[in-house]
Amino acid sequence: MVDLGHSLGLTIVAEGVENAAALEQLAAYGCDNAQGYYFSRPISVDAFDDWRSDYVEGIQLGAVPSAAS
């Protein structure tokens, strides 16, 4: 599916990523982006800015933070 999408000039987003192993496999397939519980459980709009700041900081430190409660 990734190759098909790329051949059509599309950016591929995988949904439902729940663990590091799935993310690593998607990266090996050449998937462009991913979303899912591995990154965050659903959060309110109000909590998003704080989550985003923490997430970016976590990436810079080499870790993926969990979502705010």
TrEMBL record:
PANTHER family, per database record: CYCLIC DI-GMP PHOSPHODIESTERASE PDEF, OXYGEN SENSOR PROTEIN DOSP
Highest taxon, organism lineage: Bacteria
Organism name: Demequina lutea
UniProt domain EAL: residue ranges: 1-56
Pfam families given in the database record: EAL
One GO MF term: cyclic-guanylate-specific phosphodiesterase activity
Protein name: EAL domain-containing protein (Putative c-di-GMP-specific phosphodiesterase class I)
InterPro entries reported in the protein's UniProt record: Cyclic-di-GMP_PDE-like, EAL_dom, EAL_sf
